[in-house]
Design a protein that fits this description.
Layout lengths: L5 E4 L10 E2 L9 E8 L3 E11 L6 E3 L7 E2 L2 E2 L7 H7 E3 L10 E4 L2 E5 L1 E3 L3 E4 L1 E6 L7 E2 L4 E8 L7 E8 L34 E2 L2 E2 L5 E2 L7 E2 L2 E4 L2 E7 L4 E6 L7 E4 H7 L19 E2 L4 E2 L4 E9 L8 E10 L2 E8 L7 H11 L1 E9 L6 H4 L25 H7 L4 E11 L5
Parallel strand pairs: 2-8, 3-31, 25-26
Antiparallel strand pairs: 1-12, 3-4, 4-13, 5-8, 6-7, 9-10, 10-31, 11-12, 13-30, 14-30, 15-27, 15-31, 16-22, 16-30, 17-18, 19-20, 21-24, 22-23, 27-28, 28-29
Length: 423
């Protein structure tokens, strides 16, 4: 899952995560209902909520309001080293609607792309589904089905409304790392198969060592460490293209990695992606097509095991779409070997994974890997290069942010349970 954090500062707020708890803004998680479904009992509504990822939050001095991180650099007085920074800096609560453009209504979550708040302009967001005020909801995916409705009609080229599962700790890493005082309540402990190095705190320590500010993003940089875990990209999409991609890792659970060898070695960063346009069916997904992205539709993902039990080995990931009472299917992801393939994915599924929902633009590759021709070094006639109808010049974050600030994505009607019970 490619990610980037962009949070343009005009005053005190800054997009960064921390490990102490601040007291200047009260943290209140927006409520979000979802349903748990069984063959014998039907679907039962579950009372949940969402929490904002720590990397978007204001990090300030524990005893005041001095930024620990401004733009894309650390305050060297408050953060001379990882441990001292964790002791000095506090992670504060979030104004979900006013600052971040995050709203919920019953079973629906809407993420707005650009939000002009009282102190800042925020770009995109990432949230997690909560089981309680201090724990993420954990999903055991083997021999289960996950369904949601999505509206991508307001997502143009260059944007990605992503819904996926990550092998994070339920408490955000508090039990493992005592210096992490904020935990899941404040959105800590993120990891994915890209082993992102832009996460500000990993394993309860600030990622300040060898921090390098980004050359094209004034609000981001990379540190010495990355944070890796298995990732199941159920949904990465806009109104033009969509993909689902399992990414296996050889490590189990959230793991801090250092160095280019480990960064490229423990996880399958490319994954085994399935994009119907890339596979040659150019009339399946898009405005006015079989799956018509001009209106809401239902996405069903089934995680099939060899013996149809929750303990069996994962053998297939099946995708179905439902819209206006009609069902459409396009292909399965049957096998891939890198970093353990479906067997490795199944191991992570049995331990439980956290549901992540986000909206972002791409400072690294302009989202061309999702909705255009990629990589640019290869001919468009090469199989797999054409991934969507967006122009190769599209997706530049500065342009997308300037031209499409009102973009948004809405996820709703989330259901999880036995195969065949959620739609």
């Amino acid at each position: 899952m490619h990610t980037s954090v962009a949070f343009v500062l005009f005053s005190l707020l800054t997009a960064v995560c921390g490990q102490q708890i601040g007291t200047l803004t009260t943290e209140s998680h927006p409520s979000l209902t979802w349903s748990k479904c069984t063959t014998s009992g039907g679907c039962t509504v579950q009372e949940g909520s969402v929490v904002l990822d720590a990397n978007w939050r204001w990090l300030h001095s524990k005893t005041g309001s001095t930024n620990c991180y401004t733009g894309n650099t650390w305050d060297t007085t408050l953060c001379p080293d990882p441990a001292t920074c964790a002791a000095n800096c506090a992670l504060d609560g979030a104004d979900y609607t006013g600052t971040y453009g995050i709203t919920t209504a019953g079973d629906a979550l809407t993420l707005k792309f650009v939000t002009h708040g009282p102190y800042s302009t925020n770009i995109g967001s990432r949230v997690y589904l909560m089981a309680s005020t201090t724990k993420y909801q954990m999903f055991m995916l083997r021999n289960q089905e996950f369904t949601f409705d999505v509206d991508v009609s307001n997502l143009p080229c260059g944007l990605n409304g992503a819904l996926y599962f990550a092998g994070m700790d339920a408490d955000g890493g508090m039990a493992k790392y005592p210096t992490n005082k904020a935990g899941a309540q404040y959105g800590t402990g993120y990891c994915d198969s890209q082993c992102p190095h832009d996460i500000k705190f990993i394993n309860g320590e600030a990622n300040v060592l060898n921090w390098t500010p980004s050359s094209n993003n004034g609000n981001s940089g990379t540190g010495q460490y990355g944070t890796c875990c298995t990732e199941m990209d159920v949904w990465e999409a806009n109104s033009v293209s969509a993909a689902y991609t399992p990414h296996a890792c050889t490590v189990h659970g959230q793991t801090r990695c250092s160095g280019s060898g480990l960064y490229g070695g423990v996880c399958d960063k490319d994954g085994c992606d399935f994009n119907s346009y890339r596979m040659g069916n150019t009339t399946f997904y898009g405005r006015g097509l079989a799956v018509d992205t001009s209106s809401k539709f239902t996405v069903v993902t089934q995680f099939i095991t060899v013996d149809n039990t929750s303990t069996g080995a994962l053998s297939e990931i099946r995708r179905l779409y439902v819209q206006n009472g009609k069902k459409a299917a396009f292909g399965d992801t049957n096998s891939f070997e890198s970093k353990g393939g479906l067997t490795g994915m199944g191991t992570a599924f049995s331990k439980g994974m956290v549901l992540v929902m986000s909206l972002w633009d791409d400072y690294a590759e302009n989202m061309l890997w999702l909705d255009s021709d990629y990589p640019a070094t290869k001919s468009v006639t090469t199989p797999g290069v054409a991934r969507g109808t967006c122009s190769p010049s599209s997706g530049l974050p500065a342009s997308v942010e300037a031209n499409s600030p009102g973009s948004s994505v809405t996820y709703s009607n989330i259901k999880f349970g036995d195969i065949g019970t959620t739609f």
